[in-house]
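Write out structure tokens for TetR/AcrR family transcriptional regulator.
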Amino acid sequence: MFVTLAAMPPRPTSRSRRDRPAKPALSYEGIVAAAVRVMESEGLHRVTMRRLAAELDTGPASLYVYVANTAELHAAVLEEFLGAVDLGAATGPADWRDRLAAVLTSYTGVLFAHPELAHSALVARPSGRNYLALVETLLALLHEGGVPPGQAAWGVDVLLQVATATAAEHSSRNADPSAGQDHDALVAALRQASPDTHPRITALGDDLVSGSPRERLRWMFRAVVNGTLATPRDTTPHDTNPGGTSP
């Protein structure tokens, strides 16, 4: 049986590259925005160069023009989320220590809302405008409180470390189904401690686990701030050999 050309179905025509919609040009901002989208939908562990290349319909090698490695990419994602920290809490009539604690509590809350981001923040080194604004705000509050410049320079690092570690610890506990049982076991062990072998634990009793997480966090920040204010930097010469062991 012969089929005439007129009866044959038309062959599909392939679209030329000119007919396809042009991909947006790659940019640092676009890469970071894609990284944030992937993190929010799939988790930070999925924010890799290969996954982003697929998201942006390009090759992984093209991303390295803008971002050096995955660690830098995660730092950039952290930088984006730091824009949600309430720096406005630094102003107002409250004592400078309370305002500083409020800013750090907001920072902790931002990390706490994203457990993977909290863990990444322990090693990530953001350097964008949001991070600089956070550091500047904390330093301004320490200056307002009369903290000497050298002590403020080191103190702000300790404050951010405490806030970051706290967020990472508590976000991990919330994600662990057995965390509640572990806490109950600890409380029970403290209550059952013998006054003969653990007199100080017995004397403090339930006060060891008293207070809300927010109350304890604010107290912790105030304790670090007061220590920063009262502790001068050691001026004794030390071995500065970078190959030596840490103190």
